[in-house]
Structure formats: structure tokens, C-alpha cells
Design a protein that fits this description.
136 residues; mainly alpha; 2 strands; elongated
Amino acid sequence: MKKNISEFKKFIARGNVIDLAVGVIIGGAFSSIVTSLVNNILTPILGLVLGGIDFSNLSITFKDTEILYGAFIQSVIDFLIIAICIFVLVKIINKLMHFKKQEEEKAAPKKSDEVLLLEEIRDLLKKEQPKKKKNS
């Protein structure tokens, strides 16, 4: 029993499990933001552009069953809008991260040609010293 508990503690303490849990929580919160963006802003704008078409009310009645194909069409449209929003946000975040990485690379001091030449001479001299001691 103690072995199982210690194995479980090791499993939970591993970084990727905690990272995954944080990712799921952040993903859930981000999902509600994107859903709100789609439902409250983009879908009404799209409805204005398309002349107020609402697919969610479209249906076919077959015998005693009502098939709500319009709700399916609306879900597909919502999915596409969400996918586009996430794509754009990921592109923006990647661009910002790339910009930040470039700034960090620029900030790192680079050695001048003179310093590089002096280091090369130093390294050559270090290689030569053991040979001189062996010959003496």
C-alpha cells in the first residue's frame, strides 16, 4: 500500500501531469471566453451580414420525429468560427513569443571579432604547452 502511495505521489509530482492539469483548467476558462465571443459578438454580426438567417430553427418532421438539422448546421458554423478565432489567437501569441525571443537574442552581448581572435589564440597556446613540456 505504501509503495502504491509513493508511486502515486511521484506520478502526480511529475511536471507534465501538473502542466496537463493546468492546461485543462486554463482551456476550460478560455473555452468560455471564445464561446462568449462567438455567441454574443460574431454570430449576431454574421446574422446581420447574412440578413438575419437563423439556422437553428430549421427542421424536418418525419412521422412523429422532428429532425433539427438547423441546430446541427448552427453548431458547425459555431465550430468553424471558434476554430478561426483560436487559429488567429495562436498566430498572434506565436508572433509575440517570436518577437520576445528576438529581443532576448538582441539583448545578449555578442563577442567582438578581437575577443574571438584572442580566445582562439589562447586555445592554440593551451594546445601547444603540453607538447613543449613533453619535449623538455
